[in-house]
Design brief:
The complex is a heterodimer of chains A (255) and B (272). Chain A has 255 residues and is an alpha/beta fold. Chain A has helices at 55-62, 87-93, 109-120, 125-138, 154-166, 184-199, 211-217, 235-240, 245-254, and strands at residues 17-26, 29-39, 44-48, 70-75, 78-79, 94-97, 172-176, 203-207, 220-225, 228-233. Chain A is built from nine helices and ten strands. In chain A, a hairpin with a 2-residue loop joins strand 4 (70-75) and strand 5 (78-79). In chain A, helix 3 (109-120) runs parallel beside helix 5 (154-166). The N and C termini of chain A lie far apart (49 Å). By secondary structure, chain B is an all-alpha fold. Chain B contains ten helices and two strands, in the order E-E-H-H-H-H-H-H-H-H-H-H. Chain B has helices at 39-57, 59-68, 70-98, 103-118, 121-135, 140-165, 169-177, 182-212, 224-235, 238-270; strands at 9-12, 19-22. In chain B, helix 1 (39-57) crosses helix 2 (59-68). Chain B is flat. Chain B starts with 8 loop residues before the first strand and ends with a helix. The chains are: A alpha/beta (255), B mainly alpha (272). The A-B interface holds A 63, 65, 88-89, 91-92, 94-96, 98, 100, 102-106, 115-116, 119-121, 148-150, 161, 164-165, 168 and B 16, 168, 170-171, 173-181, 184, 188-189, 192-193, 196, 271-272.
Chain lengths: 255, 272
């Protein structure tokens, strides 16, 4: 596709995700206010911040569930924010996990996982099923292949949702508050899967306030407020000695 | 937009299991109605008993009427089934049109719904019969089916629209985030779930259509009602003929309403 005129397919540098001067305005609310962010391959970045700070909007802009008002986003060198971009191909490379799981209730756990590979990538059925079973085993749910979402606990549903996203072999995984809808005893099983994923070298952008996960797996913590990135750095630095007053105030609330 | 909003049909998202409330004249028995003498049982078996007893005590008009009617029942079924099948197809596309992001498609679907819902079915039947007759000669039964399809297509369109909109937005988002196109997501994720939600209201519309099909007797379609009228005008047994016609309609609608109730319960039990 020749759209070099509108797509400055500039060298993405060593970045998997690059957000440049991103702005998003909903009616009269500024959700993203000139945000810049880079995520390197195999890097795990945790985004924290009060509700309404724009963290989910930032995440959802990366696979264009939201369209930016202005600014640019690249994923692996492809300009997502380009209206002419083949967004479906880009979305294949970007897995997403939602707060409310969003499993397809009319499909079994295994079918949830194999649906997209079969339809989008035209993977033969047998092959997709085999890969799906491997993924279920990886998230510890090999025995739940035939279970329907309403027969699974929240933690199990979220693990299936992670497996479903991984089935497309994404280069980047986005997690939008993956444990916020879970009972405390189920949070750990989901975080364990995510930690494993991080150790295996997946590039991850995670909106979450799970300090334990941040310390165990995150390379960097980004604090957002009112659509802006206020402060970022290694987890220990941000959590233990934040430089900004707003970060400190926020951390006092959640710690 | 909803200037002719129909309060009978509304979607009430109740957390996980969404159900479309239809408080139509549909005779859906209360779920879990386990009483021996439920209203449904009294009406249904009462009607059947009358249909059996009356020909016994007065075979002259009643047994003869009963023998005269089956052709009409068949015709009524023919019109009803053909119409509901066509109306489901029209309704599905109307519903999709109503949620379409393409303004033109959306507007056409909405105008269709508004016009049809604003004109009485009887007037529509007359209109389509005589208007079509001006252009092409169609058999009476075809005119009847077309009229019912046009009318019910609009009603079913609203049911499909409400059903599609009752599916949480996250479903579409999850599907397109996986790389599915909008239409793939619609076919593989949204519509299969919609079907479950709309099946009970579709059953109700089927029953409503069965009843409304009596209107086509004003065309030269010998349905159940018309057969009854034919017998009555031949023999002057008006009271007896229409008693039997009413009882037969009652047995049919009560029978199907029970089927819909069972179907609804099954869907509810299987969950989502």
């Amino acid at each position: 596709m020749d759209d070099s005129e509108t797509t400055p397919r500039e060298a993405p540098g060593p970045y998997r995700i690059r957000v440049q001067d991103a702005c998003k305005i909903f009616k009269d609310v500024v959700a993203l206010n000139h945000v810049d962010l880079e995520v390197k391959p195999a890097e795990v970045v945790l985004i924290i911040g009060p509700s309404g700070s724009g963290k989910s909007t930032l995440l959802r802009s990366i696979n264009r569930l939201e369209n930016l008002t202005s600014g640019d986003i690249w994923v692996d060198g492809d300009r997502v924010s380009d209206r002419a971009a083949d967004i479906r191909r880009i979305r294949e490379e970007v897995g997403m996990v939602f707060q409310s799981f969003n499993l397809f209730p009319h499909l079994s756990a295994l079918s949830n996982i194999t649906l997209a590979p079969r339809i989008v990538k035209k993977v033969p059925s047998a092959e997709a099923l085999e890969a799906g079973m491997k993924l279920l085993a990886r998230v510890g749910l090999a025995d739940k292949a035939d279970a329907y979402p309403d027969q699974l606990s929240g933690g199990q549903q979220q693990r299936v949702a992670i497996a479903r996203a991984l089935a497309m072999n994404p280069k980047v995984m986005l997690f939008d508050e993956p444990t916020s809808a879970l009972d405390p005893e189920m949070i750990k099983e989901v975080l364990d899967v995510m930690t494993d994923l991080a150790r295996e070298g997946m590039t991850m952008l995670v909106v979450s306030h799970e300090m334990g996960f941040a310390r165990a797996a995150a390379h960097r913590v980004v604090f957002m407020d009112h659509g802006e990135i206020i402060e970022q750095g290694p987890p220990d630095a941000v959590f233990n000695c934040p430089t900004e007053a707003r970060t400190r105030r926020f951390l006092e609330h959640i710690l | 937009m909803a200037s002719l909003k129909d309060p009978r049909r509304e979607v009430r998202p109740t957390g996980r299991s969404t159900r479309i409330e239809v408080t139509d004249g549909a005779l859906i028995p209360e779920k879990g109605e386990r009483v021996v003498f439920s209203a449904w049982r009294i009406s249904f078996f009462g009607a059947i008993a009358l249909l059996v007893i009356l020909p016994f005590i007065a075979p002259d008009p009643y047994w003869k009427i009963l023998q005269f009617l089956p052709d009409g029942i068949l015709k009524t079924f023919q019109v009803t089934v053909l119409s509901i099948v066509c109306a489901v197809v029209v309704g599905l596309f109307t519903g999709l049109g109503r949620i379409s992001r393409i303004t033109l498609v959306n507007r056409i679907a909405t105008i269709y719904v508004e016009i049809v819902r604003g004109i009485p079915l009887l007037v529509q039947i007359f209109y389509i019969y005589y208007a079509l007759g001006k252009i092409v000669q169609v058999p009476d039964i075809a005119a009847a089916v077309i009229a019912m399809t046009v009318c019910y297509g609009a009603y079913l369109g609203e049911i499909f629209r409400a059903g599609i909109q009752s599916i949480p937005r996250g479903q579409m988002e999850a599907a397109i985030a996986l790389g599915l196109s909008r239409s793939q997501a619609l076919q593989r994720v949204i519509l299969p779930q919609t079907l479950r939600v709309v099946l009970p209201p579709l059953g109700n519309e089927f029953i409503a259509l069965l009843k409304d099909s009596s209107l086509v007797s004003i065309l030269a379609v010998s349905d159940l009602l018309r057969r009854g009228r034919e017998y009555a005008s031949k023999t002057f047994f008006y009271f007896e003929s229409f008693t039997v016609v009413a009882l037969v309609y009652l047995v049919l609608t009560l029978f199907f309403s029970r089927l819909v109730a069972i179907m609804e319960e099954r869907i509810g039990r299987r969950g989502r």
